Amino acid sequence: MRSGEELLRRDAELLWHPYSSLTQPAPMHLVTRADGVRLQLDDGAGGSVEAIDAMASWWCMIHGYRNPVLDEALKRQVDEFSHVMFGGLTHEPAIRLAERLVEISPAPIEHVFFCDSGSVSVEVAIKLALQYQVARGNNGRTRMLTVRGGYHGDTFAPMSVCDPVNGMHSLFTGALKEQVFGPQPPAGFDRADDDPEYLAWAVAMRQVAAQYADEVAAIVVEPILQGAGGMYPYSPACLRLLRSLADEHGFLLILDEIATGFGRTGTFFASEHAGVDPDILCVGKALTGGYLSMAATLCTTDVAHTVSGGPGGALMHGPTFMANPLACAVALASIDLLLGQDWAGRVASISAGLSAGLAPAASLPGVKDVRVLGAVGVVQLGGPVDVKRMTDAVLRRGVWVRPFRDLIYTMPPYVCTDEEIATIGHAVTEAIAEGN
Length: 436
What we know:
By secondary structure, this protein is α/β, with parallel strands linked by helices. The protein has helices spanning about 5-15, 55-60, 70-80, 90-105, 120-135, 155-160, 195-210, 235-250, 300-310, 325-340, 345-360, 385-395, 420-435, and strands at about 30-35, 40, 50-55, 110-115, 145, 180, 215-220, 225, 230-235, 250-255, 280-285, 295-300, 365-375, 375-380, 400, 405-410.
């Protein structure tokens, strides 16, 4: 067996990690075991560190690692078959998962298209919207309307609706489709719909929607919480306005619930905070409980039938691993496991614990804001985070986080105990205090 030191050396020589340089790689931590909510890390020098995964492996591992229910679902499906093509063939796990997704989704949603990843689900949603408008004779409607501050994925169509200035894809300006951007919603989940900043934003959005009405096929947004664009919550009133603008101008409303779905913000889907239903819904991340990459694009009967009756008579997309039976089986088990418990109570408890644990950070020098929404806790600094220093400082306190930009944040597994949530909050707060 190779040593941790050797493996980390080979990693640095061979592997490109997310948003990283191959020639100047960031320090890596070697995972040797993951169980429950804890990671076992090899430091490359013969030592070992155990840490609570406060990131739920980029927000998807909601039930923790080595969950016996999900493990068993995978094992059962492996004994049947691990994969078949979805062209001309179907299987029970896909049918049952589609039934379950329609059952738990907003009322108008009736149809499911399975995808490989969250980014691809947004690609499919955009394709659906474009084909929908063509089928209705609106050939000039080829652009998406969105708001600043958003993030929707790393493939080309999703990149085009990410924030074009402050997002992660500004290097591709000029190569991406030019979409229509309105201003970022004013910050604050509790902001009222008679607040002056909300009213000014609403006026600006109405103007943008009217100006580009003949060019826009759909509105694309992350409901209530913008994720990788800045962990930025906004008022449900803003989402209600976007729904009304879509209805007024004949746009479809695409809600990207990849990060916010499955209870993360306190309601099962974030759009429920606003009482808004989408025409197209994207889900991913926690869909399989973090076990396998899978996503889905769901839509209304109007969208499905209009596209199916339009030119081509089909949705023009078909991934090789679409509706992979292993992924479907574990996704179904994950949803049933989540709904079979008091998930809302657990998320509320996590929210209270994060609020208590992170609150002291608000008074620390260099801290701009502390905010919590559901099982999401964020400390925003006044400038960029020293990622290595902060990661190491939190890790010394037994917690794994992955800061970015000016944010140190946590989106922990739902199975964390109250004590583990308190540990996360204290570790982040103490690490920030140490740096100051």
